[in-house]
Each structure stands twice: as structure tokens, then as C-alpha cells.
Amino acid sequence: MNYGVEFQNPADAKTHARRYVLNSLFFIFTFWALNQVAYLFTVTEGVSLFYPPSAYAMFLIFLLGGKYLPVHFLAIYLGGLPYRDVFNYNLEMFIPDLRQFVIYGLAGLILRKINSPQKIINAKFFLSVMVASVLTALISTVIFVGGIGSNTLSFFSLIDRSSSFFVGNLTGAVTAIPIFLLFYQFWKLGWRELISSLLRNMLKPQKVVALLIIIILTALVIQLGKMDEQFSRYYYLILIPVVWSTVKWGLGNGLVFAFIGNLFALSLFIFSGYSHYGIFEVQIMFVISIVSVILIGLVQDERDLFYHRAMYDELTGLANMRLFREVCFTSIARANRKGHESSILFIDVDGFKSVNDTLGHKFGDEILQKLSQELKYCVRGSDIVARFGGDEFVVFLDETSDEEAAGVSEKIIKQLATLFRIHTDAVELGVSIGISLYPRDGADIDTLIRKSDEAMYLAKKEGKNTYRIYGDHHR
């Protein structure tokens, strides 16, 4: 099942209305379901350790848009069923509902203004979400304090209640992040693909072991915390494997592990009858773990992005020459030890200037991107393809003779001839390929590239859309 959220070009008003109804039903049902889960973690009347529905609604308003604000209020109204008497709705029930609606609905609209709903998984989104989480918890606390009759409370009692309320709201907000991301993946992929993706990613032996360790340590933390009512003193036992998994497998995996581990901790806390111990500390543990995972995961993502930009061509996604030389240096050293041959192909697109001149650079870029993918399909996983510059590419064929390199060249020429026929009839395209062989034609990568380049120019001179081996014509 897939729920559309953009109606810029609706087929008709009926389709628009149908999608709106489906999204609205999903909004109300998931909000209600999260409320039911929150009731399971009730420690005292009106206080739950785990209350993400409001922040989850904020994310849905962010994703779906302001036209779902009436649905948001209806979800709040129905969310308490069957624990609240919605048929005797009164001012005492309306005020907290209105507080939720205004604070989280407005936060969702602001998030939508700041971030594009089409570009969610990025640093800007997560950082703005954390700011929104703190601000919504703070504003909600201020309104709460203003409505509890502070004149009847001592200063320390007021601080204690407002602190607990603030941390409780913050826990709900940060907890809604992994829940919303799970929904977002479901919205993009559907149930089957989502479950398949989770199973593929989570059932790897290392990850299963890491998750079991987190669950075991979580139980240990709760037991130790019960003894001296100092849960935070032992929390690093959970935080260490959660942070390690984030560093090793990325932000998404870290959020899943932090969410499961902490939800297990809250379950033990409630179902083992520890609710008279430190509620405040357990909630702070939850917030710290989620926020730590997000910050560390974003640093890892930025590092990976920086590495990718430094090592890969932006247009084609192929290796750039820096990465190409590093890989070739290692491969040549290995070939030297084993006494193997290796080959370099230098590939130039014939007639590419005509594409840019007649069809434009955008079309030319599309041709280069398709060509890059085809080149990768024509070689083995142990080989490497790189963009040399413009419409020129180089390929390193590991442990390959010149006869085998010639066979790969013929395959590339044939495959790209089909690609070019599909994409343009306006100009005639082809490829010229030059081949050099290690160690016969050179002992270093630059010499091999230069000689394969010379062989490529010879192929162009002799008719184009063909290949030449350096050694056949230069000796």
C-alpha cells in the first residue's frame, strides 16, 4: 500500500479526494495506535514514560502539508479512545488538546517551510528536528506550568514538576524521529519492500549479535539502577554498543538499535514494577541515546560524503583519477608479486562534441551517465572504471592479458553502439579504445595511461569505433 502526498497534477478531483481520505485515515489510525502504546507506559495518572504521538503528528504535518491540520485535531480528539470520554467533551479536555494541536501543528508547518519534504534524510532535516523538539517541549512546559496553579506549589515542587514535564515531552519528540522515519520508508517502499529491507539489513550475524548485546546490557542497567536508584550511572553500558553500531553501520542502523534498546528498557522499567524509581533518569537516558546517535550518525554521513566527493566523479558516480591511481597502485603491486599481467583501456567517445553542439550539454551529460553505467556492466567487480575527464574514461583490468583486454574492448564497443542508437539518431557516436599492458608497456600507472592514450589516438586515425593495442603498432 502506498500513500501519495503530492497533488500538484491530480488526474481529477475524485482521485485527489480519495488520496486525502486515505492519508487522513492513516494519520488518525497511527496517531491512535501510538496513544495506545503510550498508555502501556503509564507510571502515574496522566503521566507516560513514552509519549511520541504529538511529535509524530508534527512530522506528518511536515510531510503531508497544512491541509491536514483539521485531521490532526480530529486525531487528537479520537486518540484517547477508549480511555477518555469523548462524548462528554469539556473545556478541561479541550485546553490540553488545543495545546497539542497548536504547538505541534505549527512546528510541523515550520519544519515544512525550512526543509523540503522530498529531501528528508539529511543533516539540515535532523538538526532542525532536534531544535523543534526542544522548542516544542519548552513551549509545552511553559503552558503547562501556567495552568497548574503555581501559587499552590512550592518553588522546588514547581521546578520538579516542570522539569519532569519538559523531559517527558522531549522524550516523546525524539522518540517520534525513528517512528516517523519508519513510516517514511513504508510510504516510499510499501510494506513488503520495507519488511524485506529490514530483514536484509538487520539479520546479518554481526548486527544480530550487537542487538542481543544491547538488549542484555539494557536488562543489566535496569537491574543495577534498581539497586541504588541511579540508572544514569550505568547507562554508558547501553550507550557504548549503540554508538559503536552507529559508527560502523550508519545513522539508520544506530537509530533502530537505540530505539529498540530504550523501548526494551522502558518495558522492563514498567512491567517489573520499578515505576517508583527514577522516571526522570530513564527518560533522560532515552533522549541522550537518540540525540547521540543522530549527532554521531550525521558526522559519519558527512565524512562519507566528503570521502565520496574526494574520490568519485560528481556527474557519473565513477571513480575519479585520485581513487583510480590508488587502486591501480595496489593492484599493480599485487600483480608484480604474483607475476600477473594487467591492462589499461583508454576510452574516448567519438562524435561527442557534436552532441553538445546540436543537442545541448544536458543531453550530453545524460549520455555520459548512461555510458558510465554500461562500462561498469562490461567489466568485472575486481576491475575499476574511472572518468579521466570530459568524454574520456580509463579502465583497469586486473590480471588480464592483451587478448582478454581486446575481448573486453569488443564487448564495450558493441554494448555502447546499442546504447548510442537508443539515445540519439541526430549524431553518429562511437568509442575508440587504446590498450596498454602491464608490465610489458610500463611499470607505473601514468606510463600505462599515456601509452593506452597513444593507442586510442591510433584507433581514431584508423577509422574510429574500434580498438588498438599499444604493443602491436609501436614495436
Automatic annotation (TrEMBL):
One of its GO terms (molecular function) is catalytic activity. Keywords: Cell membrane, Membrane, Transmembrane, Transmembrane helix. Residues 340-472 form the GGDEF domain. Its main location: membrane. The chain crosses the membrane at residues 20-43, 55-78, 126-145, 165-187, 208-225, 254-274, 280-299. Its cofactor is Mg(2+). This is Sensor domain-containing diguanylate cyclase. The lineage of its organism: Bacteria, Pseudomonadati, Pseudomonadota, Gammaproteobacteria, Pseudomonadales.
